[in-house]
Design a protein that fits this description.
The protein is α/β, with parallel strands linked by helices. It has one domain: Glycosidases (TIM Barrel), CATH 3.20.20.80. Helix content is about 40%, strand content about 15%. The structure holds beta-D-glucopyranose.
Amino acid sequence: MKFPKGFLWGTATAAYQVEGGNINSDYWLMEHLPVSPFVEKSGDACDQYHRYVEDCALLAQLGFNSYRFSVEWARIEPEENEFSRAAVEHYRRVLTACHDHGLAPMVTLHHFSSPRWLAAKGGFETAAVGEAFARYCERIAHDLGDLFASACTINELNSVAHLQHGGVMPPDEVIVQLPWRLEAARISNTTPERYSMFPFVARSTTGQNVLRAHRLGAAALKSGRAKFPVGMTVAMQEIEALPGGEANAARALRESEDLFLEAARGDDFVGVQTYTRRRVGPEGPVGPEPGVEQTQMGYEFRPQALEITVRRAAAVAKVPIIVTESGIGTEDDSRRRTFVEAALAGVGRCIKDGIDVRGYYYWSAMDNFEWLLGYMPKFGLIAVDRMTQARTVKPSGEWLGRVARANSTELAD
Ligand code: BGC
């Protein structure tokens, strides 16, 4: 399969998962509570805050032409309405390093973590997050926009609904009483009703606030002099109804994906992020069929899910598609290649059918901090030594880099 000219071949990361030392973010506070639900602390992560030049050079040398990463809001606006020029300058250097190495920077403005002050004020559980997010986006567009190739506003902005329908989110009244939320609220001098961390929120109305923040943020990003495409990214799954589960599956699709995809209609693109399939029965999600191969996340090994979600995203959002995340957590790197080959074959079929897919970003460039699960899941094309921070490219990384360079899956061996 040959991909269209100009196809974006990239890898994705998020600031909190690779930079290290994001001590002013709400996730850092949560990690360090005695009642933390995290299995370990992020610490120095992959120290990308200092090693971005080396990382850009490595990704470019492998063959990629783009890099999706996020800027950490808590560094840029450490207190409400107080912006750090030094942090902005840091990201200017990161963006410059991308350009120096021929990597088109795709920048995400919010990838799960928020400044601590925002969490203390109710985060995405309040409508006011829209104005706060827009102010931050406007500043970024003004100071850094000239170096952006494209921007994603909020990573997986449908996460709350997705987790709820996935059956992994406790009800609102339970979340508000979770020990970490009580403790984080106390430390932040606020109440557990008010304290809020995305996406572990206790109000089902959050989706509206997130969509509003996306709209205001996207407008702010476009208000600057620099012009670049802006979109949201949506967490998607192949959702399969088991007998009797049809109504549940339809509701999950509608409420956790389609409502958001419809809101992407005015955007320049929509980012599709797909990892697996979800099977839904009369009582809700049922997990993978016994005996099927599972990834380190407990997900069904299901690369075919990408084609299905790309087709649905295109049909509903009616804007160009970028696969902003596709990947697998596995210790067996040969399964990674198999997974990506199959996922890309699906993307190729979509393109052949006339769907405007503009890029594929593998999650993730390197093994990194997988949120609550810590450093156990291995999503990277590049391994990172946790003691020395040394990077070692895996065979899957060499292979996908060759695909990227050739713009084709046929020439890669
Ligand atoms: C998130 C990443 C995460 C990845 C793998 C995505 O939903 O955007 O932050 O590491 O999934 O679980």
